[in-house]
Amino acid sequence: MSHKLKVGELKEQYMTDEEIWRVFTVVLSSKSVKSSTYKYVLMKSIIENLYQINDQYELTYNQLAYSFAKIYWNLVVHHNLVKQNRGPKNARAVTVIQEFQQKHAIPSEFSFDKIQETLQLKLVSFMKSVMKENVFGALYGDTRGQFYAFDHKLEVFRLHPVVHQFMLRYQRLLVNLVNYHMAVMIEELNENMNINFLLNKVESIAKRGSLKRFETILLSHFENKCFYCGKRLSERMGNIHVDHFIPWSFVQSDQIWNLVLACRTCNLSKSDKVPQRPFLDIIIDRNEQLYHMPTESTVLMENYKDKKVILLYDYSIENGFDTLWAPR
Ligand SMILES: [Zn+2]
């Protein structure tokens, strides 16, 4: 059985967009056996980490398990969608989360972000075992070994470079496809669900509750000014906004190199639009400074390259974010 594999090697031949689409279609459609929502959550986790990938196109199991744990926590505990597989028994990921919540007496209202950091890491490590046992090998089989390689011992996941580029280019479409198919399956498994309501939940499960941590780091390194209009930010509650330079609805992840401090007016008027080109140069300069600062931000900037943000900028426009914004 493919999901018992401990190592999966990558068949590294070139693939055309058409061939990659064909594999994605099979994975997402009823042609592939879906006994649980694992594949969707793994795909969402990969998408969330697309910009964290290193020069060898690798992600660590920890990076992926962090996203995986967050998504399942929010689904199972926060939204109470406990049926995540077919058959009488609960999906292993669900059981692990429920036992964890009980053992540490974590209130159900808590989203993943609210859980204490040491506990978060403990849960991430449990989820990593679940992924090794049930997840990496299963999707590997469905993608016929053409999308990624994995190694349980080294705890490394390596994406095919061509597939990585494909996922960046069609990210918005892929997110929508994965969300839709995942919502359909969750609805089928959990009775009395309404799909519109569910799509909203599925769209936001990977979203962070608070960007406070990034606000603190940015404030400690830079002048207390709006990135866009230059206005001084008052310390009053609710006046300092952390803005995703490239909108969250496109990147689906929170990287410090894509976050800026903004005033309320700019943040609200920008909404989910992409800023005009000159701001791209400004954020690249800002990131260059951040990259060389010897603090917590060094870790957060580990896999940063200015070409990533340029690529992301161009892809977001290609993906329909083409109304470019500037402050009034
Ligand atoms: Zn402003």
Description:
The chain has 328 residues and is α+β, with helices and mostly antiparallel strands. It folds into 2 domains: 2-204, no CATH class; 212-325, no CATH class. Helices cover 52% and strands 8% of the residues. It is built from 15 helices and 8 strands. The protein has helices spanning 17-28, 38-48, 61-78, 92-103, 117-134, 136-142, 161-169, 171-189, 195-204, 212-221, 248-251, 264-270, 277-291, 296-300, 306-318, and strands at 7-8, 58-60, 148-151, 156-159, 240-244, 259-263, 274-275, 324-325. The strands form 3 sheets. A 4-stranded antiparallel β-sheet has the order 1-3-4-2. A two-stranded antiparallel ribbon has the order 5-6. A hairpin with a 4-residue loop joins strand 3 (148-151) and strand 4 (156-159). Helix 4 runs antiparallel to helix 5 and helix 13 packs antiparallel against helix 15 (306-318). The radius of gyration is 20 Å and the shape is globular. The chain starts with 6 loop residues before the first strand and ends with a strand. Bound molecules: zinc ion. Zinc ion (ZN) is lined by residues 226, 228-229, 231, 262-263, 265-266, 327.
TL;DR of this structure?
This protein is α+β, with helices and mostly antiparallel strands. It is 52% helix and 8% strand.
- Count the E strands: 8
Question: How much of the residues is beta strand, in percent?
Answer: 5-15%
- The spatial strand order of the largest sheet comes to 1-3-4-2
Low-confidence stretches: none
Distance between the termini: 59 Å
Associated small molecules:
zinc ion
Taken together, the total number of domains comes to 2
How many individual helices? Answer: 15
Structural class designation: alpha+beta
SSE string, helix = H, strand = E? EHHEHHHHEEHHHHEHEHEHHHE
Q: What global shape is seen?
A: globular
Largest sheet: 4 strands, antiparallel
Helix content: 40-55%
Radius of gyration, taken over Cα atoms and rounded to an integer in Å: 20 Å
Q: Average pLDDT value?
A: 89
